[in-house]
Write a structure and sequence with these properties.
Chain lengths: ~625, ~240
C-alpha cells in the first residue's frame, strides 16, 4: 500500500543480506544501557548504526536482555523511521522531501543521486553500500534542498553538487569528509557551522542579542522556588512550541504535585515543516537552553532532566554533549550547583529516531521511556504524572531560553515587549519564496505584510503560518497579526508566490500527516488517508461540488474525535485553504455527468474482459467504429 | 463496590439523566453501572481502557472526549445519544469498515460481530462515501487450534491487553506506525508463540470481529440465532435501567 509519495524502508527492490550479529555483541550494547527497557531507543539506535538493521534475531536478544517480549521490541523498532527491520546501506542517504525542497530543485538532486549510485529512491544497493530514501522535513528549509548522509547534513544541494557528493561517496569518501577534510580536528560547533548555516537575519533583545553567561541562573539560586515561578508567571511567558500554554502555571502545577521525584524535559523535537528556530538556539545558545532547564529544575524540585533531540538533529549531538560536560565541570550541573547545598540537577541527552509525533508532549515522554512515540491518555497530565509516572515539566527549547533571560532581566522587562496576551519576542523561521530566508527574532504583534517586507517576500500569494497544522492565508489576510490571539504560530512562516499550486501544497501536507500519524486512534490513522485521497481527486479534476462538503465534514470528524493535537489540527491545511482560497477548489470542481463514482474509470475496468472476450462493449465504448 | 467508595459518590448527568459515580471512575464505567449504554469497540469489561477507537466519544462540559478514559466529574453534563455524536461514531465505524476488508456475508463472526452490530445500532444503512483501502493482509493459520485473518482486524488491541494482563503472556502487540500500524504476534507466526485456544485473549468475547478464529467450532450456532441477531448491541446494559 502506498499512501504517500515517499518510498522508504522495507520495499527495497534489491535485497541485501541481513548481517550476522553475535548475541554477545547485542548483550554488550544492552549492558551499556544497564539492560534498562526505558533506554530502548538508545539500544535500538546503536544496533541500527552498527548493523544497519534490527533483525529478528537481534530483537529476541534485546528482549531477553531487557526483560521484554520480542513483540514489544518490534513495536518500538517498527515505529521510528530511522530504524529498520531490513538492512539499509552502510551509508544512508535521506533526501529531505519537504514542499520547500521540492520547489527548490529536489527532483534534479534526486536524479543526480540515483544516476551516480545506480539505485532509485527507496532502494538499497545490492552490495549494501548505500541506501537512498526520502524523509520529511529535516529542519533545513532556509537552505533547501538538503539531505542527511548518515549523521552529516548537506545543504543547498544542486544537481551538480549532489552529483559530486555521490561520486565522492562512491569513491569511498566518508560522509564527514564531504563537509571538511579536517572534520576530525574541528570543534563540534565548527562542524555544525560547516554543515548548516544559521541564517540569523535579525537578532532581538531577548535571545539572539548579547546574552551574559548564566546570569539568570545566578539570580535564580538566590530566589525561592515560589519566587522563580511567580517571576515566570508575571512575565506572561507562554510555551513557544505552538500550543502556547502559560509556562508559569505549568511549573506551578508540577511544583505543587507531591512526589518522590520530579523531572524536567526539554522538547528539542521541532518537526513542523518549515520550523528551524530551535536548531539555531541549540547551535548558538546551547548554554542558555540548559540554564533554563536548570532554573525550571530549581523551581519544581527536579534532580533529573532530559534533553530530547530529534533524530534529524543528530549532527548537534557532540556539540550538546560537550556543553553538558562543560557545565558539569563548571559546577553548573551535578551536585550542589553554584555551591548551593541541595540544588542537584543533571541532564541526559536523548536522541529521537525520526518521528514527528514525538514533538507532542505525551509521545515525547513515551519515547523517553523507550516506548513507541504514542501520545498518552489525558488526564493525567504530565505535570501530575509524566515521565515514569512522576510529575514532569516539558517545555520547548525557546521557552527555556526565555525563562533564563526573564530570571536575568526581570518579569517586567519581558512583559513590556510584544502585545497584550503575547508578551516578549518570538523567533520566526521564515522560508520559501522570499529573498532572505532565515531566523528573525521579533516582538509579537507584527503583521504578515511587515514580515514579508522584511524578508523580501512582497510578491507572496499565500503564506502558511504555523506550519501545516497552522493557517494558510491569502493576500486579503496579510494585515493579520502574528500573536496568540490572531495568527498563532510555533514559529514557522512559509512564503509561497503566485506560481505555486495551492492544492499541491495541501496534498503534500496531508501526505505528511498520513506518514506521521502514530496510528493509535481511528480518526487520525484512517481519516487522514481519506482526506489525502480526496485532495488527490481534486487535483485530478475528478471532484464534484459535493466533495467540498465531504472535505469539511470529514475534517470535522477527524478534529473532533482525534486523541491528540496531531489529529486535532491535521485537517487545517484543507480547511484553511477552503476558507481562504475557495476559487482554487471551485476551479477544478465539476458536476459528474454519468452518475458513476468519479474515481472509477470504466474503460480501464472493462479492458481485461474486453481483451479476453475479443469484443467491445456496446454500452461503454463511446465510438463503436474505433 | 466497597463502602468507602460509596461514601465518596457524586452525581453528574448523561443526556439529562442523573448518574452516580465514584472517585476514579470513568464516564463509561459510571454509565454502565447506571444502565446507560455508550457505544464502544476497543473497550471491554475487565481490560485496561485504551481510548483508541474513539467510538465512545461523548461531550463532557462542551468538549469531545473518550468516555472510556475520561474521569467522571461531579456536576458534569455529558451528552451521549445525540444526532451529532452518533454521526461522528458512524463515521468512525465506517472508517474501520473501509480500512480493512470486512465481508460480512462470508465472515464466521457474522451475527456475533461487534463492528457489524455497531453499524446496525448506528444506522449505517446507506452506501458509505469513504474510499476502500483494500489492504492485502496475511492470514495466519499456523496454529493447530487458532487462525488469524488480520484483514478483519480493527486494531482495537483487546487481544493484546487480554493476553498481557489476564493471561500473563504477551502473545500479541502493535507494530508499525500510522495507517501501517497493526496487531502482530510475538514470533514468526502464531504457532511460534505460546498462545493456547483456552487463553482469554482467544475467547470469543475478546475479539470483537472475526479476526481471531477458533478452528473446528465455526457455525456451531447458525447465523440468525447469534448474539446480535437477537437484539441491538448494548441492550444488556440498557436493560439494567428498566
Amino acid at each position: 500500500m502506498e499512501y504517500g509519495r515517499r518510498k522508504s524502508g522495507g520495499s527495497s527492490a534489491t535485497v541485501c543480506e541481513v548481517p550476522y550479529v553475535p548475541d554477545a555483541e547485542i548483550a554488550g550494547i544492552c549492558k551499556t544501557y544497564g539492560n534498562d527497557k526505558h533506554r530502548m531507543l538508545d539500544i535500538l539506535r546503536e544496533v541500527q548504526d552498527r548493523y544497519r538493521c534490527i533483525a529478528p534475531s537481534t530483537m529476541e536478544k534485546i528482549a531477553a536482555s531487557t526483560g521484554l517480549t520480542r513483540i514489544e521490541v518490534e513495536g518500538v523498532a517498527s515505529f521510528y523511521s530511522f530504524l529498520s527491520l531490513t538492512p539499509r546501506g552502510r551509508i544512508s542517504i535521506r533526501l529531505c522531501d519537504d514542499i520547500v525542497d521540492r520547489y527548490s530543485g529536489l527532483e534534479e538532486v534526486t536524479k543526480a543521486f540515483e544516476d551516480v549510485l545506480g539505485i532509485e529512491v527507496g532502494e538499497t544497493s545490492s552490495d549494501g553500500a548505500y541506501s537512498l530514501e526520502y524523509t520529511p522535513c529535516i529542519g533545513m528549509c532556509d537552505q533547501a534542498p538538503a539531505a542527511m548522509v548518515n549523521d552529516v547534513v548537506l545543504t543547498r544541494l544542486t544537481s551538480e553538487s549532489a552529483r559530486s557528493f555521490a561520486e565522492a561517496l562512491k569513491a569511498g569518501q566518508s560522509p564527514e569528509h564531504l563537509v571538511s577534510d579536517r572534520f576530525e580536528v574541528l570543534t563540534p560547533h565548527d562542524r555544525a557551522l560547516r554543515m548548516v548555516d544559521n541564517n540569523i537575519r535579525h537578532a532581538g533583545e531577548v535571545l539572539l542579542g548579547p546574552v551574559p553567561d548564566d546570569a539568570g541562573l545566578n539570580h535564580a539560586v538566590g530566589m525561592t522556588p515560589t519566587q522563580i515561578i511567580t517571576a515566570i508567571e508575571e512575565s506572561g511567558l507562554r510555551g513557544c512550541g505552538g500550543a502556547g500554554f502559560t509556562t508559569g502555571r505549568k511549573w506551578r502545577f508540577a511544583a505543587s504535585e507531591r512526589a518522590e521525584k520530579h523531572f524536567v524535559i526539554c522538547n528539542a523535537d521541532e518537526g513542523e515543516p518549515g520550523t528551524f528556530k530551535d536548531r539555531v538556539l541549540l547551535t548558538e545558545r546551547p548554554h542558555l537552553v540548559i540554564e533554563g532547564m536548570s532554573i525550571a529544575a530549581r523551581a519544581v524540585g527536579a534532580r533529573e532532566g532530559i534533553l530530547y533531540l530529534r533524530g534529524e538533529y543528530v549532527y548537534l549531538r557532540d556539540l550538546l554533549q560537550q556543553v553538558l560536560e562543560e557545565r558539569r565541570r563548571r559546577g553548573l550541573l551535578g551536585e550542589n550547583i553554584l555551591g548551593v547545598k541541595g540544588f542537584n540537577f543533571d541532564v541526559r541527552l536523548q536522541l529521537g529516531a525520526g518521528a514527528y509525533i514525538c514533538g507532542e508532549e505525551g509521545a515525547l515522554i513515551s519515547s523517553c521511556e523507550g516506548l513507541p512515540g504514542e501520545p498518552k491518555t489525558r488526564p493525567p497530565f504530565p505535570v501530575n504524572r509524566g515521565y515514569l509516572g512522576y510529575p514532569t515539566v516539558v517545555n520547548n527549547v525557546e521557552t527555556f531560553c526565555h525563562a533564563a533571560r526573564i530570571l536575568d532581566r526581570g518579569a517586567k522587562w519581558f512583559h513590556d515587549m510584544g502585545t497584550e496576551g503575547s508578551h516578549g519576542t518570538k523567533l520566526f523561521s521564515i522560508c520559501g519564496d522570499c529573498l532572505n530566508p532565515g531566523i528573525y527574532e521579533l516582538p509579537y504583534g507584527h503583521t504578515v505584510w511587515e514580515i514579508l517586507e522584511r524578508v523580501g517576500g512582497e510578491d507572496a500569494a499565500a503564506v502558511q503560518v504555523g506550519g501545516p497544522s497552522g493557517t494558510m492565508i491569502a493576500r486579503d489576510s496579510f494585515h493579520r497579526k502574528l500573536t496568540f490571539d490572531d495568527l498563532a504560530t510555533g514559529g514557522a512562516v512559509i512564503v509561497f508566490n503566485g506560481e505555486r499550486n495551492i492544492l499541491e501544497i495541501v496534498e503534500y501536507y496531508m501526505s505528511f500527516f498520513v506518514h506521521e500519524s502514530c496510528g493509535y486512534c481511528t480518526p487520525c490513522r484512517v481519516g487522514n488517508v481519506f482526506l489525502q485521497k480526496a485532495i488527490q481527486k481534486f487535483r485530478k479534476g475528478l471532484a464534484n461540488p459535493e466533495d467540498v462538503e465531504y472535505l469539511k465534514d470529514l475534517s470535522g470528524t477527524i478534529i473532533e474525535t482525534s486523541r491528540c493535537g496531531l489529529g486535532m489540527t491535521s485537517p487545517n491545511p484543507v480547511l484553511t485553504t477552503l476558507q481562504n482560497f475557495p476559487l482554487v477548489y471551485s476551479a477544478v470542481t465539476k458536476p459528474s455527468k454519468d452518475g458513476i463514482r468519479d474515481t472509477f474509470d470504466i474503460q480501464s475496468a472493462i479492458d481485461g474482459a474486453r481483451k479476453i472476450a475479443k469484443r467491445r462493449s456496446y454500452i461503454f465504448d463511446r465510438d463503436f467504429t474505433q | 463496590m466497597s463502602g468507602t467508595r460509596r461514601e465518596t459518590g457524586f452525581s453528574f448527568t448523561i443526556d439529562g439523566v442523573e448518574v452516580t459515580a465514584y472517585a476514579g471512575q470513568t464516564i463509561m464505567e459510571a454509565a454502565d453501572e447506571a444502565g446507560v449504554y455508550i457505544p464502544r469497540l476497543c473497550d471491554h469489561q475487565g481490560l485496561r481502557h485504551q481510548g483508541s477507537c474513539r467510538v465512545c466519544t461523548v461531550k463532557a462540559g462542551g468538549r469531545s472526549v473518550a468516555a472510556c478514559t475520561q474521569p467522571a466529574a461531579p456536576g458534569q453534563a455529558v451528552e451521549n445519544e445525540t444526532k451529532h455524536l452518533n454521526k461522528m461514531r458512524r463515521d468512525l465505524v465506517e472508517m474501520l469498515f473501509h480500512e480493512g476488508n470486512h465481508l460480512c456475508p462470508i465472515c464466521e463472526a457474522s451475527g456475533n460481530c461487534e463492528l457489524q452490530a455497531m453499524a446496525y445500532r448506528l444506522d449505517m444503512t446507506e452506501t458509505t462515501r469513504f474510499p476502500y483501502l483494500e489492504p492485502c493482509r496475511p492470514l495466519d493459520a499456523s496454529h493447530p487450534d487458532i487462525a488469524l485473518d488480520t484483514n478483519r482486524c480493527i486494531s482495537c488491541g483487546r487481544c493484546i491487553r487480554a493476553s498481557q494482563d489476564v493471561d500473563g503472556k504477551g502473545v500479541f502487540g502493535y507494530v508499525g506506525r500510522g495507517i501501517h500500524r497493526r496487531v502482530a504476534v510475538n514470533g514468526e507466526n502464531l504457532a511460534e508463540t505460546d498462545a493456547e485456544v483456552t487463553d482469554h485473549a482467544i475467547s470469543q468475547e475478546v475479539c470483537p470481529v472475526g479476526c481471531i478464529i477458533r478452528k473446528r467450532v465455526g457455525f456451531v450456532t447458525p447465523i440468525g440465532e447469534r448474539e446480535f441477531d437477537q437484539g441491538l448491541i448494548g441492550q444488556e446494559i440498557e436493560e439494567k435501567r428498566k
